[in-house]
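Weekly puzzle thread! Below is a chain. First person to post its structure in token form gets bragging rights.
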Amino acid sequence: MIRNIQAVAGVVLREMLRRKDFYVVLVLSFLLVGLMAASRFFSADKAVASLKDAALLIIWISAFVIAVTSAARQIPAECESGTIFPLLAKPITRTEVLLGKFMGCWLACGVALAVFYAFLTIFSASRAHTMPGAIFFQAFWAHWILLGLIISLALLGSLVFAAPSSNTTICLVALAGLWLLGGHLNHIALRMTEPGSTLVYILYYILPHVELFDLRRLVVHDYPAVPWLMWAAQTLYGLTYTAALLVIGCTLFQRKSLR
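Winning reply:
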């Protein structure tokens, strides 16, 4: 089973790294980090912090878009081209195909994130003349764990919605809502009447809190690392939602007609 998943993941990883999406994001990020380096010579610390914040925001939004669009087209593209049938004719199950697609997308996003965060770490180290703290690693890790959740959601959506475009739009709108409003649903519920208040409270506790993975401000302002126990809990939280979405996706894929 593991070999089959690795084989599918390898194909997806190579296909995604050949696309230009990642390189456009990396070039934009490098340009912003280059502007930070230029600001250093003018002692513009506020400008450096603002540019660092902008670079992180761009990589966050771009990673959202790339993760969703890449995962959303995996299964529909296989079905449309007919390559899913010879693939399943081999000794490989639908579960292995879906898990391989997930792993390939997740690893590709991880490679792009690692390059960016490494470049940002090198710049910060050269500016402060000391190696940045563990918060850089924690920010990268939290971001990558969140992308795993996003990819599993997009793969699940590709089994529910007919077109990749509709799946992509719905996933991006839902993620934007969770990112911006998810942490405030409990406050919104306080201002509502029943039964709407109870319903919003239920959503607050059931839906994943995307904002918990956003450590950008800690990186921008050079805060110390979060407690490692909290970091482990954050990781477990993200992996639990990812696993749940993958289980639902595998169950739907087993029952889905591919004709």
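Puzzle host: Confirmed. Bonus trivia for everyone else. The chain has one domain: 2-255.
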